[in-house]
Amino acid sequence: MTTPASALLADLNSRSREVFRRVVESYLQTGDPVGSRTLQGSLSEQVSAATIRNVMQDLEAMGLLDHPHTSAGRRPTHVGLRLFVDALMEAGPVAATDRAAIEATLGPAADPSILLDRMGMALSQLTQGASLVLTPKQEAPIRHIEFVSLAPDRALVVLVFADGRVENRVFTPPPGQSASSMREAGNFINAHARGRTLAELAAHIQTQVTERRAEIDSLAAELVASGLALWQGGEASEPRLIVRGQANLLAEDAADLDRIRVLFDDLERKRDIAEFLSLAEEGDGVRIFIGAENKLFSLSGSSLVVSPYMNADRKIVGAVGVIGPTRLNYGRIVPLVDLTAQLVGRALSGRHE
């Protein structure tokens, strides 16, 4: 199947490809626009600076390069970076020192969030970007649920999980609830709850209530729906975003403080955390979002490299990522994010392959 990247690449001859690749690699390394004389000695064939300038002008006309202000040098556009990442980038193996630094964080930790925090810190130090680690939702199966009436307009729902955790919350039940309807609601849920997580139970119960409404009291049905809706939106089951290394972004892009402030505001508010995981879930392995492609942080013009991680059942439960300027060292960071996601999944599920 022809992709936008392959179509663009097909329009480039071997000289144009080499000039383009050299411009991008130099820009990613230095952050500076690249001039024709800089490239002249690095190309595989000896050509004049004027010839290189003509090639760069053609690449600019294609939207792959641009030149800032009055500079004679060129730098890749976001379209150009996308072409490079999709078609020309060579991602090598993770360096031994990088692997050792990530694996050193795998020491014993009573709380998984401590392990994830250590990994996020190591990832931000290695990449000199900001690391993002989305922790898993609490996925333990439910052992028992109970509704307790506190007053005509107040009730308590109690959840006991298979891992021994007990959580409860006060809520406003539908009008007219009685002690018997609460018992019936609890019995109905418990008959279906064992072995299911809260999300799995909510989906199952919704179907059961629809199909078997005539078999249960209408008040109990309303209570089942309202109680589960309450818990589905509960903070205790929500994922948490761990952000480390924001200061690295200031060091890298101090000249563009307004853009970095926008990014900091997004990170501090943890905006659309669920969207962060969905970005990782939409494709296999590591995904790269450059500039405006990144729906979460598009206003900041940053790049995001993100990969999901899985639990012991091979289910995606969280994500690991690095955010930084568009001139990230993609060839190094992509395999590093991939490795970190794999190690997180193994650590949290007790696998040691």
From TrEMBL:
Pfam families, per database record: HrcA
Keywords: Repressor, Stress response, Transcription, Transcription regulation
Presence of the UniProt keyword Cell membrane in the record: no
One example of a Gene Ontology biological process annotation: negative regulation of DNA-templated transcription
One annotated GO molecular function: DNA binding
Domain Heat-inducible transcription repressor HrcA C-terminal residues, every copy: 115-334
Family note: Belongs to the HrcA family.
Record-linked NCBIfam families: hrcA
Function: Negative regulator of class I heat shock genes (grpE-dnaK-dnaJ and groELS operons). Prevents heat-shock induction of these operons.
PANTHER family in UniProt: HEAT-INDUCIBLE TRANSCRIPTION REPRESSOR HRCA
Descriptive protein name: Heat-inducible transcription repressor HrcA
Lineage of source species: Bacteria, Pseudomonadati, Pseudomonadota, Alphaproteobacteria, Rhodobacterales
